[in-house]
Amino acid sequence: MSRATTLHGFALNCDCDLAAFTAIVPCGISDAAVTSLSAELGRTVTVDEVRATVAAAVCAALDGVLPVGDRVPSHAVPSPL
């Protein structure tokens, strides 16, 4: 995080083809792999099925505030390397 802004975002894989992720070492954890809710639960889990639950959990984790808008604060825009 930088100035309270995540640098890489948040992803929740529900029911996607994971083949493209086989070369990724998530968070540098060499004995872990990218997975999905469907793979972990052994059934199809759709985005629509989890959207409200995930939004509520994220909002609760952020003390009840989930700022959403079409403006990005200038401090949140990454600077070029």
TrEMBL record:
**SUPFAM superfamilies noted in UniProt:** Class II aaRS and biotin synthetases
The domain of life for this entry's organism is Bacteria
Q: Which UniProt keywords apply?
A: Acyltransferase, Ligase, Transferase
Question: Where does the BPL/LPL catalytic domain lie?
Answer: 1-66
Quote the EC number: 2.3.1.181
Q: Which InterPro entries does this UniProt record tie to the protein?
A: aa-tRNA-synth_II/BPL/LPL (IPR045864), BPL_LPL_catalytic (IPR004143)
BP GO annotations: protein lipoylation
UniProt-listed Gene3D superfamilies: Bira Bifunctional Protein, Domain 2
| One MF term in the entry's GO annotations | ligase activity
Indicate what this protein is called per its UniProt record.
Lipoate-protein ligase B
Q: What is the protein's species of origin?
A: Mycobacterium tuberculosis
UniProt lineage? Bacteria, Bacillati, Actinomycetota, Actinomycetes, Mycobacteriales
